[in-house]
């Protein structure tokens, strides 16, 4: 037996220069997509209690803040409208109102900050009285094909308003192909589609549903007849492959941290631009523990984001985008 190990992996860890030289992954501001909640009215700002640090903003305040976010180098925002209760309906007509909150927010942001990417969420849950992502039958079952036709209208209204990236988060079958066809026919050949391809029926979305005000509408109903079973992995590959075939430019896995195995499989098996959503519940967990002094906020935040890169994500939707960008700037 020799008195020393054959290989000392600690040699490379001994100094900062060598740790930097062998570092395999790096988070940059180019990896960050910032999800924001948009309110009606003017000069409106509301805290989201279950997401400490996150605020809903009216369009005027959103545009002002977006100047700062763009200056930090954040490439894109993802918009989520907080639909007033009286604009919700069984058939979610507000979803494709050309003067709806999301559509107006897109126009205002693109007018002021044309180079900042704007992504919009395509799904009906902010607009239905029952909080489901689609149109329901008498038993509460979400009807695929009727919903898909409305999603196409919603996507077209977003593209018409100037959205750069359309992001269907509804998990209806065939919606990517239908939206792509409509965009092509209407001349929106360069409008990108980021498909929420592997979106799981997760309980980590709770705080988001508070933020957009759909939690109360949804009540105890679940979304497991259309969102994926957390037990499944091969099925995610199937979903992603179909969405790419139907014309998606980018694909997403959601939630993020508990699903990094899926991010890794999607990236290594499909080799397409792959994004992960660090969702509201993941954010809330880190905020809650940090506020209690149980975790070091900045360090845990940066480590969690780096983990997405290591898993293979090309980018991350994260409520930490602004804070992370500030830290990355130094
Ligand atoms: C709506 C939508 C949801 C999220 C993004 N788009 C909620 C849901 O599917 O119920 C969740 C985002 C988050 O939790 O941060 N279709």
Automatic annotation (TrEMBL):
Gene Ontology molecular function terms on file: porphobilinogen synthase activity
UniProt pathway: Porphyrin-containing compound metabolism; protoporphyrin-IX biosynthesis; coproporphyrinogen-III from 5-aminolevulinate: step 1/4
Summary of subunit composition and partner proteins: Homooctamer.
PANTHER family per record: DELTA-AMINOLEVULINIC ACID DEHYDRATASE (PTHR11458:SF0)
Coiled coil: none
Catalysis performed (reactions): 2 5-aminolevulinate = porphobilinogen + 2 H2O + H(+)
UniProt KW keywords: Heme biosynthesis, Lyase, Porphyrin biosynthesis
The keyword Secreted is annotated on this UniProt entry: no
Statement: the UniProt record of this protein carries the keyword Lyase: yes
One Pfam family cited in the UniProt record for this chain: ALAD
Enzyme Commission code: 4.2.1.24
Family classification: Belongs to the ALAD family.
Descriptive protein name: Delta-aminolevulinic acid dehydratase
Biological source species: Reinekea marina
